[in-house]
Amino acid sequence: MKKKPRNQLWRQEIGVKLQNCMSKLRRIFETTPEISFISPQKEFSLYWNSFLESELGKIYQAIPWEKLIKSLKLRENRKGRSSQFSPQGKLALMFLKSYTGLSDRKLYEHMNGSIQYQLFCGIFLGPEKLADFKIISRVRTEIAKKLNIRVTQDVLAKAWKPYMENPNIVLEDATCYESYMRFPTNVKLMWECVEWMHGQMKRTCRYLKIPTPRTKFLEQKDKYFSYMRMRKKPWKQTTKRTRSLLYLLNKLIEEQDKIEDQNRIYLQFPEKYYKKRSVIRKVLSQQQEMFTTGSHSVPDRIVSISKSYIRPIVRGKEVKKVEFGAKVNMIQVDGINFIEHLSFDAFNEGVRLIESVRYSRTLFGKITHISADDIYATNANRKWCTAQKITTNFKRKGRAGKHEYHRQIIAAELRKERATRMEGSFGTEKQHYNLDKIKARTEQNEILWIFFGVHTANAVRIAKRLAQEKSSQSAA
Description:
Layout: H1 6-22, H2 28-31, H3 44-53, H4 55-62, H5 65-72, H6 87-100, H7 104-113, H8 115-120, H9 135-146, H10 149-160, E1 169-178, H11 186-208, H12 217-228, H13 235-262, H14 271-293, E2 312-314, E3 322-333, E4 336-343, H15 353-364, E5 369-371, H16 379-387, E6 391-392, H17 404-432, H18 443-475
Parallel strand pairs: 1-5, 5-6
Antiparallel strand pairs: 1-3, 2-3, 3-4
Helix pairs in contact: 3-4, 4-18, 5-10, 6-9, 6-18, 9-18, 11-13, 11-14, 12-13, 13-14
């Protein structure tokens, strides 16, 4: 008899193994006319143990839920209808949002169909579904009002400190988490203001049943769109559009003020309307000042009427010279990031080094080494670090000391750690934890979005360390 070739024998063995594996699965539509799943209420341990072994379950075990709930002062509703999510479930929903990187609608759909997502948030839906996908945004708004970054980070630092090898070494750097918005130009911003004011004036006149005042809105609209279609926008055309839009916006504001003054008895606008009007007035004054003086910027420059808290932050990078979003001064201890200072206004991170070391001491105790960028290497910071006996990675000034060779080795290692580990963590957070373009619509929600994005990445790192520790204990 002829011997079968080795490739054929190998394929037969693989086929047998696959059949054995597939025999454990049950095909619902081919074999069973009625579906009979094990009830989670009766066999909850089967679901729970499989959840804890998954990556999401390991993250669940790395988060100190009870202490976080106390720090945020989340409670059950005593009056009215009980919430679908418990206080822990609301927190878990925010971690899950950052971990998955899904939109609110997509997360709502996955939550209805995934038993692991439901266990992570402490609910079981069964054949039912969540009431509305907007429940996620409502939870986000509720927690954003109660968030205190320093207090909450104290809880996380105490829970994660046992899993840090070198809590005495601090890395420091600043980054910008950009908001989801169009690139603002003066013409775009002015047209948004004109369009909003014209829409409000039309609605007001329709409500009062009076004729709308004549303006050149339609004419300026055609000119604006023809200008925007230009591939290259000449300086003269830009100046012309800006002058026309400034005049039109000023006229719209005056006409709307007249209508409101004459019909004050019949009109009552919501608070959002008056806030938007004040923002547009400020935009008009800023743009008029920039146009008349020829300056490129003014203090507290508004770049978006829907997100008036956003300011341009000059970063000086080759790809993006200006970024629009929150600037964060971050400290890192053994790969775990903590927010030291967050602001939507531009600030000099070089003056934050002393405060960063003091904050690190409140979290982890004694600090012996610090690594930061060259912008932090001011004379004041150098003198303070020398007085506190803290080793830095700054370039030496003056004559070399007795242990210069050892100092250079330590500085090189600190510099390498900051340039690779810390800056790499910024890229990881932005690409994988929903911090690339933040789509929150209010300032509080944007801060919450950044907070949970940073600490979800931290929880994943701590979960990996917990898994390694358990595997080493089982092996021993």
